[in-house]
Amino acid sequence: MDVPYDLNSYIRVLKLASTPTWDEFWQVSKIAGAGVLLIGFLGFIIFAIMNFIPGGV
């Protein structure tokens, strides 16, 4: 592991990084929220199915 080379590449990435605009932030938030809701819904469906199966959880 070449520490000076790694450090320089990390600094270069940080210099290229920028704060997202409000529109970019809002779009990412909506997509992440939809993913959370989808995973929660799938978990609820699995839970409901397991409750209706005899001998389930």
UniProtKB/TrEMBL annotation:
Which Pfam families does this UniProt record tie to the protein? SecE
Methyltransferase recorded as keyword: no
Source species, domain of life = Archaea
Q: Name one GO biological process term.
A: protein targeting
Q: Where in the cell is it found?
A: Cell membrane; Endomembrane system
Query: Which InterPro entries is this protein grouped with?
Result: Prot_translocase_SecE_dom_sf, Translocase_Sec61-g, Translocase_SecE/Sec61-g
Q: Name one GO molecular function term.
A: protein transmembrane transporter activity
The topology of this chain with respect to the membrane is: Single-pass membrane protein
What sections of the protein cross the membrane?
A: 31-53
Main subcellular location: membrane
Ordered alphabetically, the record's keywords are: Cell membrane, Membrane, Protein transport, Translocation, Transmembrane, Transmembrane helix, Transport
Secreted as a keyword?
no
Per the record, GO CC terms?
endomembrane system; plasma membrane
Spell out the subunit comment.
Component of the Sec protein translocase complex. Heterotrimer consisting of SecY (alpha), SecG (beta) and SecE (gamma) subunits. The heterotrimers can form oligomers, although 1 heterotrimer is thought to be able to translocate proteins. Interacts with the ribosome. May interact with SecDF, and other proteins may be involved.
Record-linked NCBIfam families: PRK09400.1-6 (NF006910), secE_euk_arch (TIGR00327)
Record family assignment: Belongs to the SecE/SEC61-gamma family.
- Which purpose does this protein serve, as stated in its record? Essential subunit of the Sec protein translocation channel SecYEG. Clamps together the 2 halves of SecY. May contact the channel plug during translocation.
Name of protein: Protein translocase subunit SecE
Which species is this UniProt entry from?
Natronocalculus amylovorans
Q: Please name the gene that encodes this protein.
A: secE
